[in-house]
Every structure is written in structure tokens, then in C-alpha cells.
Design a protein that fits this description.
single chain; 83 residues; mainly alpha; 51% helix; 0% strand
Length: 83
């Protein structure tokens, strides 16, 4: 069944072909073609480019790159990421 491995609410949206309207959900994004759910977006697309991520959350490629760089810097500083 399409939706296996997703949270129940995400699988339900796919099954019912209904866009999620729960804007308070931490997984909600304003991207109706993927049911407004970042989990569904990842499930359907797999790995995405920074540009694709930016398109889904409404920010530029450059801003996504800044966020990625800062996150990797924090991980490295906390020794959570190998070189």
C-alpha cells in the first residue's frame, strides 16, 4: 500500500487524496502537491537538492545553504559528524 512507513496521518492523507490542513503540525509545509506534509515530500522524492527543499518551505537556495552550513558546523563542533 502506498503510504507504508509513514505516520498514520500522512498515510491517511495519501489514501484519501486530501491535502492536510493541520498547520500546527510540525511536519506541515505549504506545498499542496505533496499534501502539505514534509514527510510525504521526503517519502515520494527521497533525497532532494537544496533548491527543492527551499521551494517546499518557501525560502531561497542560498538560505537553505546557510542553514545547512550552520547545522554541519554545530554537528562538527559537537563531534557528532566525522570528517
Amino acid at each position: 500500500m502506498k503510504g507504508d512507513g509513514l505516520k498514520k496521518c500522512s498515510a491517511k492523507c495519501i489514501k484519501n487524496k486530501k491535502v492536510c490542513d493541520k498547520t500546527s503540525c510540525r511536519h506541515w509545509i505549504d506545498f499542496p502537491s505533496e499534501y502539505n506534509c514534509c514527510l510525504i515530500s521526503i517519502y515520494e522524492n527521497g533525497n532532494m537538492t537544496l533548491g527543492q527543499v527551499g521551494e517546499r518551505i518557501g525560502v531561497s537556495f542560498a538560505r537553505i545553504k546557510q542553514i545547512e552550513t550552520a547545522a554541519l558546523k554545530k554537528l562538527k563542533r559537537n563531534s557528532l559528524l566525522d570528517d
